[in-house]
Amino acid sequence: MIKYLGSKRSLINWIVDTARQIHQFAPLHTVVDLFSGSARVAHAFKARGYFVYANDHNTYAYVLATALVEANRDRYPPETVQPVLDALMQLPPTHGWFTQRYCEEARYFMPENGARIEAIRNAIERYTDPHLRAILLTSLMLAADKVDSTTGLQMAYLKEWAPRAYNPLMLRYPPLLPGEGKAFQADALELAGQLEADLFYLDPPYNQHSYLANYHVWETLVLWDNPETYGVARKRVDVKCRKSVFNSRAQARDAMAHLVHSIRASHLLVSFNNEGYLTREELEQILREWGYVACFERPYRRYVGALIGIYNPQGEKVGQVSHTRNKEMLFVATKSRAVAEGLGIAL
Questions:
Q1: For the CA atoms of 111, 115, 121, 122, what is the dihedral angle to 10 degrees?
Q2: What is the rounded distance in angstroms from the CA atom of residue 55 to the CA atom of residue 39?
Q3: Domain extents for the chain?
Q4: What pLDDT digit, counting tens, does each position of 151-167 carry?
Q5: For the segment 7-65, what is each residue's pLDDT rounded down to a tens digit?
Q6: Tell me, which fold does domain 1-62+182-205+245-347 have in CATH?
Q7: Of 245, 253, 300, 248, whose CA–CA distance to 281 is shortest?
Q8: Rounded Cα gap, residues 234 and 184, in angstroms
């Protein structure tokens, strides 16, 4: 999976084990992940046998969900897909707008890898099968992520090339799973009331940090639209206008309340942390209006950029990191009294 701010990589077992505990008292068959991002959690739910609906409003996230949740490995096995990836790897490098912008004007990738990315991406444009196309784009994103020169965010790039940036780009078969799923690209507030499932998993943006701003290169790589850009980081100009209400302190609480009350499910899992706009008490109040609620906390290491430090666009250290750990909160809400009693949730 790609490096991702807010990734639940080390929390996956906690999340799915909590769902398994619910399953002991009320069998679960369907799960909705309304803010799927890198699709890591949705992928984990699918791996455990649930039918998963994965949604995100960013195009790169929708592509990841299409490959990792919706596509069926049985229909796109390695022996079918890997020869396509191998053929793409044989293409001669192409030095065009992508290489110039993201490898020379900005330095996310070494120019040699940038030109490989550009040639491969141009060729993927010819594939019309939506699932195969998403699989190829996912392979390309995963490959590019392994040779980038960032701390895991695309708000900036490292002053000196990261050691991994010197490695050659390699396309590999993505971790597809057998079985069915469904990917959506929609506003979570609009989609929530249209879906029905046993369990909804919510992991909305916590604060002002926009996922589109942090991963604008992936958005451009998928859209392949040669966008107008700005600043040293060469961000897409639509980063300025494609905002989520969850990135607004003034709107986040009302948005969360509206979202929760529109959900048609028996159970909710809500992932949040103590650096977010909403407090534990505010979230518990919103969820108590929906069902029985419990909150569990765990300490969590902050993203790698916080450990490295704070730098300006010139690569100069300009501040001190206040802390390197936070608290991750997992809220369990259920409409079932039997489940609440089974989980020891106060009634």
A1: 140
A2: 9
A3: 1-62+182-205+245-347, 73-176+212-243
A4: 999 999 999 999 999 99
A5: 566 789 999 999 999 999 999 999 999 999 999 999 999 999 999 999 999 999 999 99
A6: Rossmann fold (3.40.50)
A7: 253
A8: 28
